[in-house]
């Protein structure tokens, strides 16, 4: 079985409301304000940020576009873009889940919507080559979830029937897209809940 992990919100911490509350305390005094700002900043990962995810624009362009669209000063937008690597900290429970999947004989891979500068950062700072046989970053293939093209690319890389792919992602739209292709798609909430689901399905010892 191939077990495919998303990154942001699954293997790496990614919670925009609390992230913006930390980076922008003057604009986001609490997580509720952070959630409102996140909807405007990241536009549900479409628009400016979606192009950044797909590698169609770089950090300077995304900063300029967000500032122009929102009226927020470029220096403040840049502070958010620059702070993302500090937010992307590995989740210990998910690291253990990867190791448990490997111990059970499964082969592990990743499928992540990730701008190029952050993909480079994660490769430099984390043992991705130990955790995974391979994977796909959206910015390197100019496609992103939940689009069908990136799932097709993942299938080609794995070379197994769709029913032999287990996929963990925290976004319902991505889970729906994977399930529509016949993947075993599991909506991720916590590492503990994901481990329990995999055990119930007989995928972990």
Automatic annotation (TrEMBL):
Coiled-coil stretches: none
Signal peptide range in chain numbering: none
Domain of life (superkingdom): Bacteria
InterPro entries (alphabetical): HAD-like_sf, HAD-SF_hydro_IA, HAD_sf, PGP-like_dom2
PANTHER family referenced in this protein's UniProt entry, alphabetically: ALPHA-D-GLUCOSE 1-PHOSPHATE PHOSPHATASE, FLAVIN MONONUCLEOTIDE HYDROLASE 1, CHLOROPLATIC
Protein name (Swiss-Prot/TrEMBL): HAD family phosphatase
UniProt organism field: Roseateles flavus
């Amino acid at each position: 079985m191939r077990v495919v992990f998303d990154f942001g919100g699954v293997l790496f911490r990614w919670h925009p409301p609390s992230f913006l509350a930390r980076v922008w305390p003057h604009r986001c005094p609490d997580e509720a304000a952070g959630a409102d700002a996140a909807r405007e900043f990241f536009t549900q990962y479409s628009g400016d940020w979606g192009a950044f995810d797909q590698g169609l624009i770089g950090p300077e362009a995304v900063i300029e576009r967000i500032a122009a669209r929102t009226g927020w000063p470029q220096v403040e937008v840049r502070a958010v873009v620059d702070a993302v690597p500090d937010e992307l900290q590995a989740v210990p429970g998910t690291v253990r889940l990867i190791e448990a999947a490997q111990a059970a004989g499964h082969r592990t891979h990743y499928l992540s919507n990730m701008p190029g500068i952050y993909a480079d950062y994660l490769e430099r700072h984390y043992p991705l080559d130990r955790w995974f046989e391979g994977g796909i970053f959206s910015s390197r293939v100019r496609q992103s979830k939940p689009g069908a093209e990136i799932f097709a690319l993942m299938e080609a890389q794995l070379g197994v029937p769709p029913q032999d792919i287990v996929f963990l992602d925290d976004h319902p739209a991505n889970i729906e897209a994977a399930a529509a292709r016949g993947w075993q798609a599991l909506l991720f909430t916590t590492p503990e809940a994901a481990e329990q689901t995999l055990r119930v399905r007989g995928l972990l010892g």
